[in-house]
Structure prediction request, 372 residues.
Amino acid sequence: MGSEIATRATFEKIRYAQCWEDADILVEALNIQPGDRCLSIASAGDNTLALLLGDPAEVIALDLSAAQLACLALRVAAYQALEHAELLQLIGSRPCDDRGALYTRCRPLVESEARAYWDAHPDLIARGIGTVGKFEHYFHIFRTKVLPLVHSRKVVEALFEPKSAEERAAFYRDRWDTWRWRMMFRVFFSRTVMGRLGRDPSFFTYVEGTVADRISMRTKYALTVLDPSTNPYLQWILLGRQTTALPLALRPEHFDTIRSRVDRVSWKKIALEDYLENAPAQSIDRYNLSDLFEYLSESNYHALLKSMIRVGRPGGRLAYWNMLVPRSRPNFMADSLVPLKDIATTLFAQDKAFFYSALIVEELSIEELTGR
Prediction:
């Protein structure tokens, strides 16, 4: 079958050195049960590893990019070879004078193709493996070149001081939402600039309307309704590090659990469409799909849903995000997929990766699947 996006974008380099979907709400949305089999878009690997906290029997990670799978493979090795503080140093969440030494300890546990990738890129190791994607570079430019033209470092750091909801709203109104901020946002987060510096331009094929305006509304929500002092994604974007919060898979209380279960993770360089075509019926319980459908035509999105329904087990769940393109189960699949709208709405209200426009959670209908 092949993947539509594979015909329009290239995947030789790391696009995402971190996962930019909130793993807290992902894990809760999927409601993984002990013994489940999970299928996950690999990306950089953080959220694939976070799925282990639900105690699944297996997590299968897929990606079109060998570079993205190398990110996952090195993370798996790091959980085995390093201690928690050292993992954060390797990622780049904490300072480190010699990340090469950390990699040397991980290297024997990294599978051969990924090892060859990292051996050829010691400069990426030295910078911190969570800093080196195209998307992270986009935020680096924003943080170091653009944001200082709008706000002083003092104001940026004040944003992350704990405040009440009323205090956050007042800070945004009185100190943050200046005419410079609004003008900068319209330019830097436009379709053109984001496509050139952050995402691939082809990822906007099915986007309609103004990109910057949509992201601006969600950013205001993250800075006022949500608490920046507990938001690791916002902290990385604006400070270049996580100060008072970490993503789910990197929190110290979860380190030993993930370490003890990383042998349950496997990965393949293959399109999701091709994997599903050859997968046995009713063999997957949970799907972590990132924002994959954003890049597909509506017809290809529907075809992929049909494949996931065939391969899914009764009562299983799909979780995915919309950023700029609305995608959700069509009415003609109502007998096979049930939208869990209340769960999705509640969780999306807590979404710390604030640039998405919707979280979609759908359940595989028990009646339909068992009746085939």
User: Anything to note?
Assistant: The two ends are 23 Å apart (CA to CA).
